[in-house]
Amino acid sequence: MTSSEHGPQTLLAVEEQVGVGKRRQVTGTVRARTVSHEREQAVEADLSVETLEVERVPIGRFVDGPIPDRQDGDTTVISVIEEVAVVEVRLKLVEEVRITRRTESRKMTDHVTLRRQDVVVDRDPAPEDSVA
C-alpha cells in the first residue's frame, strides 16, 4: 500500500474454484433367462367319417326303355341294362346298384404337449470397487 492512496482498500486473500467431473459406477447387474414349462392336456374333437355302401341287387326282368337314375332316401339307385337278342330287341333290367351314404360321428381324444416360457430376472449386487 502506498501513502498516496486514500479510502478503503480490498486485498484478495483466498480464491476458491470448483471443478465438476463425473464417473461411472456399477450399482448392480441383471441376468435374464427363460424357463420352459410343459404340460399334457387332453384334446377332444368330434370327427365325421363318411362311407359308401355298394349293394348289387339282381333283377332279371325285361323293361320297355332305359330307367333314369333315382334317389331313394340316402340311396342312389343306378339301373344297369343290357340288350338281349330275341325275336325283338327288348331291354332287360339286369340289376340295380344301390349306393348308400352313411355318416358316422365319433369322439376323438388325444394328448398334446403345450409349452410356455417365463422370463426369470436375477439381480446381482454391485461389486465393492466397481468404477468404469
Account of the 3D structure:
- 0% of the residues are buried.
- 0% of the residues lie in helices and 66% in strands.
- It has no helices and four strands.
- It is rod-shaped, with a radius of gyration of 51 Å.
- Strands 1-4-3-2 form a four-stranded antiparallel sheet, with no helix packed on it.
- The protein has a domain at 41-112.
- The mean pLDDT is 85.
- It is an all-beta fold and 132 residues long.
- Residues 14-121 form the DUF2382 domain.
- It holds the Pfam family DUF2382.
- Keywords: Plasmid.
Strand order of the largest sheet: 1-4-3-2
Question: Could you spell the SSE succession in H and E letters?
Answer: EEEE
Tell me the structural class: mainly beta
Q: Which regions have little confidence, pLDDT < 50, spanning 5+ residues? A: none
Compute the number of strand runs.
4
- What's the pLDDT, averaged over the residues? 85
3D shape: rod-shaped
Strand content: over 45%
Keywords: Plasmid
Domain DUF2382: 14-121
Protein name: DUF2382 domain-containing protein
Nutshell version of this structure?
This protein has 132 residues and is mainly beta. The protein has strands at 28-63, 70-72, 75-85, 89-125.
How are the elements arranged and paired?
Layout: E1 28-63, E2 70-72, E3 75-85, E4 89-125
Antiparallel strand pairs: 1-4, 2-3, 3-4
